[in-house]
Amino acid sequence: MKNYFIGIDLGGTNIKAAMVNITTGDISGTTSIPTHSREGYDSVIAQMGVLVERVITASKITKSKVGGIGVGVPGVIDMDKGRTLFLPNLPGQWRNVALAEKLSIHAKLPVRIINDARAMTLGEWQFGAGKGVDTVACYTLGTGIGGGLIINGRLHLGIGGAAGELGHVIVDLYGPKCGCGSNGCMEAFASGPAIAAMGMKAVAQGLTTRIAELCEGDLNRITPELVCQAAIEGDSIAKDIYEQAGRYIGVGVASIVTAINPRRVIFGGGVAAAGEIILDPIRRTVQSRVCLTDLKSIQVVLAELGNTAGLVGAAFWASQK
Ligand SMILES: [Zn+2]
Fold it and tell me: How far away, in angstroms, is 266 Cα from ligand 1 center?
């Protein structure tokens, strides 16, 4: 079997790609270009083809040694047919686009596609924070909350690869509307925008908080990172915001822990950069709300691969039969 596969991460802003040694997880020739998504999917896919050639050149791996391409896609896909069904963050939403087939014509290599959070899950499991255990739940805390499940040494796919949307586990029956169409999902309480919105609300209410000083009164400058900075500096309102987000995440995690007993629960993505500020309330909530599982065997940890996990995982996926 071939050892090198190209991983591509299709994002709303940038497309990243790299050559991945799928035995070691080492990457080389990492390249990135703006997505230019307004030009339409055919143009974006043609650009991906150009990016593939650049990665091959930059990595100095000859094309005949490359087994194929894996693309991590931000949204709902039909894995078997290699088609995108609904990419909410891209213009036109890429409904029923034959991404795998079109890219393989440009790149002259076999192509498989996978949801981007599932790709990150595979990457962390094979080469990062999930190494060595057979059951893992993985969360990406960012603009949305993505996820993935490894169960008994396999990525759990469900129907068409839709399983593992851990951010849409409902944590409050009567909670606010979520982007997915349901309401009360974890994502509606603890995504990056939800955390920023809590910070904006505190400032708008005139509460005495370091958040107001850091954003210099401009609500549009409030980000999860800014709220985190205020929490690090000891601001009690900012700490409360992360405490609340962490508790909601913890409730969702508690349900997953009870359902599948993952050996590790892994958190990556921009919001997870808050580290213990977000992990601590998650761990406390899991401790207090999981009653039927031996929690000594379960670790709640941060991801290790950073933003390369998706590239590595997509390439690894392409290498799987
Ligand atoms: Zn939802």
Answer: 20
What's the gap in Å between 13 CA and the centre of ligand 1?
23
**121 exposure class (CB count in 10 Å sphere: 0-12, 13-18, 19+):** buried
Tokens read off for 183: 């309401």
**What separation in Å is there between the alpha carbon of 302 and the centre of ligand 1?**
23
Domain of 260 in residue numbering reads as 132-304
Q: Max alpha carbon distance in the chain (Å)?
A: 63
Find the 209 Cα to ligand 1 centroid distance in Å: 30
Q: Are 152 and 100 within one domain?
A: no
> How many angstroms separate the CA atoms of 139 and 253, rounded?
9
Closest by Cα among 1, 183, 191, 161 to 81: 161
The enclosing domain of 80 has a CATH number of: 3.30.420.40
Q: How far is the CA of 163 from the centre of ligand 1 (A)?
A: 13
Residues paired with residue 115 on neighbouring β-strands, in sequence order: 73
Sequence-distant (6+) residues with CB within 8 A of 27 are: 7, 18, 19, 20, 21, 308, 311, 312
Q: Is the dihedral of CA 22, 308, 98, 161 positive or negative?
A: positive
Q: Measure the CA–CA gap between 276 and 257, rounded to whole angstroms.
A: 20
Answer whether residue 165 shows pLDDT above 80.
Answer: yes
Give me the mean pLDDT over the 166-176 stretch.
Answer: 97
Q: How many CB atoms lie within 10 A of CB 226?
A: 18
- Asked if residue 302 lies in contact with residue 268, where contact means CB atoms within 8 angstroms, the answer is yes
Query: What average pLDDT score do residues 8-32 get?
Result: 96
Residues 12 and 115 grouped into a single domain: yes
Ligand 1: distance of its center to the CA of 190 in Å?
A: 11
